Structure formats: structure tokens, C-alpha cells
Amino acid sequence: MRPWSLAPNDGRGRSRPDEDESMAISDPIVSELANPFALSDGEGYMWLKGNVHTHTTNSDGRVEPQDRLDQYVAKGYDFLCLTDHYTITRVDSVRPPDDFVLVQGAELHPESPFGGREYHLVCLGIDEDMDSEAMSPQDVMDRVNGQGGSAWLGHPHFCAVNVLRDVMPLTGLAGIEVFNTATRCAGRGEAAVHWDDWMDQAKRLIPAIGNDDAHGREAENHDTYQAWTMVRVKERTVEAVMGALRAGASYVTTGPTIDDLALEWIEDSGEATGHFRAMVKCSAALRVLAITNYIGANYDEQGETFEQCTMALRATNQWVRFEILSADGTKAWSNPLDLNALRRT
Q: Has residue 86 got a pLDDT over 90?
């Protein structure tokens, strides 16, 4: 077994106490997200599988709304949002099963006033159509939030988003789409670097979603059923699903499952500081990455798969998120967790 970090360590996967850590970010993270793995079945919580970014013939999709819904239902999904470009596909225009959660939304495209490309905002829980192309991105988000909805930064890698230029001037974004199946086909499907950059600059934790962004037909096996978001909720309602997404009580995956994440602060005997210990349980993994605000950690077993691991994280780390890599190339992303909250308890 081989836990290690990018810096010299003491054999336990953590930095030596005499190491120069002057580069570590010291500004505190001011917001906390939920740890969905601390929400137990005994309290009534359950996992739901869903996709909140997909298209139909109401915009540039190749499948009728009812057919798109029926296909995701048949694949075992629990919730869906039909996010057609510029227009809301009304939930009362289709017939979902009684226990299926159908979120109303749209993908809206305000122009950038900052020199970048147009935004792709995945807007959930909205009821009012708007001419987003004639509005500023801030006005669009204000309108979405004013309806009780949420606006998510869609596939920022594909859109060549510069976080400092295009994201930091805005307020009210709910989070980021960290993986998008359709834009992966264009070589820009993953946005983990944008995610980390945003959190570092904003000094707060940002939740993520992952979606197919389906446009094609099911038989084409192009952009359907390849990425989804798992949410931890007590009930099958739009309010519960949207609340879990906003709170980060979720994770994104293209295949692997995350079964448990646990964190604790360890006081080091005979030393002035301590370290964090992370314990991960998951489906068979080839590698687990702990990504933090500065230097994180990696766990692998030299080509063998495993289903649980423990890693040590530096005392200067302030947040951590995990990526699970499987042998078939699929991946899962946890939401970030606030390590400062552990240190305060």
C-alpha cells in the first residue's frame, strides 16, 4: 500500500512538521457544505440518481420530451430536468411516473460583458421564461434566484471560461458542472481545475453537478446515461433534490460509487500541530485522490484495486474533495468538505 503526497513526508502520507509551508493558502473558507455520507439511512435518508442537463426537440435535441423522459426512467434514474436552450419545457407537458422527480428548468445564454464567450447557465426550478440573450448574466441569475431557482455554471471548460474574468465578478451562482458527457466528446468535458480555481479565489466551498447534456438519440450511445449526480434526500420531491444540490449533499459520477467519506482531526503526540485523517469507502478503485486547497494526497495499491483507504492530510489544508478513479477509466467526484470545521470542534 502506498499513500503519499507531493511533498516529502514522514511515511504516513503527511508532510514533515519542519517542512516549509509558506505557500499554503491561509485565508479561511467561510462556507460549509453538507457531508451526505453523515446522513444515515436510519434517519430516513436515501440516494437518488439524476441528470439535470438534457435537451429535447424543443431546442436542439433529437428526441421528443416525453421520449427523453421515458428513456431516463427506463434506465433507473430518479430525477431529471429537461433544460432546453432559451426556453422552459414545462413539466406538465410530459407524464412522469408518480414517484419520479421532474425538475423544471432551461439552459440560458446571456452574453459576457467581460470579454469571454456567452454563458451556458443550467437553470433549475424556474417558471418564468426570459430573453437571456438580451440580459446581463447577473440579471439572469437574479431573476432565477428570485424565482427560488438556482443557476449553475455549465461546462466551463468547453466554454473557455476564465474564472477570474468571467465568474468572480458575478454573485448568485449555485455551483459548477464538473463533468459533462456531451462536451467530453469535444475534448473538454471535465472542469475540475475551474472548480478548484473558483474555490481558491472565492474563499468558499462550491458544490458541483455532473450531467449528460444529452442531445442525441439513445441508440447513438453518444451523450446519454454516462454521467449523473447522486443526491442524499429524505423525500422524492423537487424541493428536496434542489436543496441537496445547493447544499452539496451529493456526488457526481460516471460509474464508481462512493459509499462513505469520514474525516477527523488527529493531534500529533509530541508535536505542536496535528493532521487530518480521511477514510474513503467506494466501489473497486484503482486510485483515490484527495484534492485540497494546496497539497493533497494520493492512494493507490500499485495497479491493484481496493474498496477502502485511509490518507493523511496536512494541518494547513482547509478543504478537501475526493476523486475516485476506476480501472475502466470512469470517475467519481465528491463535493468539498470544510476541514476548518473539524479543527474547530
A: yes
Q: Residue 148: give the domain boundaries.
A: 40-248
What was the pLDDT predicted at 11?
A: 29
Find the Cα–Cα–Cα–Cα dihedral 221, 249, 325, 281, rounded to 10°: -130
Query: Which cell is 148 given?
Result: 427560488
Tell me, what CATH number does 17's domain have? 2.60.40
Same domain, residue pair 44 and 158 = yes
- CA pair distance 235, 249, nearest whole angstrom: 13
DSSP string, 107-144: EE-PPPSSSSPPP-EEEES------GGGS-HHHHHHHH
In terms of Cα–Cα distance, which of 81, 85, 87 is closest to 68?
81
Q: Are 226 and 314 found together in one domain?
A: no
**Predicted local confidence at residue 324, as pLDDT:** 99
Report the percent of the chain where pLDDT is more than 90: 81
The answer, yes or no, to whether residue 336 has pLDDT greater than 50, is yes
Q: Same domain, yes or no, for 271 and 215?
A: no
Q: Is 146 helix (H, G, I), strand (E, B) or coil?
A: helix
Q: Residue 232: name the closest of 46, 60, 76, 87 by CA.
A: 46
- Cell readout for 137 is 448574466
Going 150 to 330 to 204 to 171, the CA torsion angle's sign is negative
Asked whether the predicted pLDDT for residue 4 surpasses 60, the reply is: no
Contact between 8 and 317 (Cβ < 8 Å): no
Query: Does residue 226 share a domain with residue 264?
Result: no
Looking at the structure of the chain, the number of domains it has is 2
pLDDT tens digits, residue range 141-197? 999 999 999 999 999 987 889 999 999 999 999 999 999 998 888 888 789 999 999
pTM of the full predicted structure? 0.90
Q: What is the spatial distance between Cα 255 and Cα 83, in angstroms, rounded to a whole number?
A: 23
